[in-house]
Amino acid sequence: MQTPHQHLLWLTIHRGIFRLRRGVDRMRSPRRILATILAALFLSAYVLNGFFVLWSRRTADPQSLRLWLSGGMILYLIYHSVRCVWTEKQVDMEYTDAENLWLGGAPLKRSTVAAYKVNTMMVSALLKTFFLSVVLAPDVSHFALLSVGVFAALVLLETARMVWQRLLGGLSERHRVAARVSLTAVGIAALIQMFGHMVRITPPGSDPGHYVLNSFRAVGYVASCDIVQWLAIPWRPAALLATTSQITTHTAVQLLAAVALIPTAIIALVRIDGWAERCKLQREQARLAAGDYISPQQRMTGQRTAYSADTLADRIESLCPERLRDAVALLWRQALSIRRYAGTIVFSFVLPTVLCLSPLLTGRAGNQWAFVVAGIALCTMLLAPPALRLDFRRDLKRMLLLRSLPLRPIHAVLGQLTLPVLITIGFQWITLLIAGLLVSPGWSQIIVWSGMLSALAVFTFAAENALFLAYPHHESAQGFAMVVRANVMFVGKATVIGVAVAALMLWITLCRTAFADPVSTPIYVIGAIGASWAVAASALSITAWCWNHFDISADLPPE
To answer: Is Cell inner membrane set as a keyword in this record (predicted)?
Structure first.
């Protein structure tokens, strides 16, 4: 008779096979053939570039690599802890609705379900181990020990991440506030230390690009400091095993310790998960005993707030043109839901603003404006989309409702994308205004970059949502497909930036050659902004086409 663990292992394997077959079928679909071709081209370019970099780079010092493998895990854990402690909604070990229904309602022990979650996480850890082992193979002597060490470190990191997440779920509100203060202080201290190292190793007056390159070295210094290495003691055996140069008796001890820490972390996860469930149940019982039947979320959004919001929405809708009222109503729905994330969104854009303005502190007056603009463009394309998932990517479980609304495709797209685009444009204009006051680049530069960066924001979110509608995925999805998606999007965005810069330089040259100085500047500004918005409008049209051809019966991914 098979045990529940064997049944869950069977479920994990067959679910992975099903997802692989489904992914292949989706890539071969005629409706997605263009997106598949572009993804294949970008992925091929990414792989070829990776081989070139691996072939041309120098081998790393084993001691530095050892410190990176241990201290880098702690830095990521600190980042995840700070992000998790400021998240209002604590999920239950990232179970999907289907897992909560079929596994949570099944006669299974909580520890069995927790072990199942760790088991599914190991599949993605194996894929990450393969890629990291290929990258780090030239730096070590034993590939097999490197693979075992990296796999043990990644599994321990993911398990520790889930341990911390469940620990937060069991804390009371008062203790969670204390955790926010303490962990935020730790994160700020790590950032201050990183900037201190970056300033120390960069000569004063250097080009801002040198600061960017030296920031990676600065992160390495933080990862190798004594405090971080003391916190990384659980990862030390795996790091030592991965960088082993000669096999001795200590290698066997390191192998045993690295492997033994995995079941130890799983047991700790099961124990803390049970403690969190008991604490949650006790708080619910205390609320019921006190006669408090209203949740904190319901208390924050009372009847008066809902009534006043509806009244304001009706007034705004009455002022809009008839053709745009449907899009405005959908936009108002997005605005109502953003109130819970307002603090998180502001915090998410404070650091990019500081980073974009940091070139102003380098003391080089010649190219500060160019680096500020480049920083805003990079933040728009790389940081804004994951920070502002207030569009189709958040509404995957409500696609049936959205498809049933009597909206034209372009109105649905405008209603879903307007709010994140406006927030991104606000970040751009505030940063440009501060930089313009300090650098004084001229009115033409401020106007042209304000218009082009605004178009870039529209293009970025339209492209992200078009790809999502062509290949939808759940918010908590992981695995090989998500790695490929991230790499393809990175290469695609880099290609777009490169082509846009080349086209802009060509346009500037043509304007200076064909027109005199007083006339060339307005033509250059109008042409650059007009071309940018034409590309953005095309991206919106493609997104509307993808939404119009979105098939709920076939495109919704299973959980």
So the answer is: no
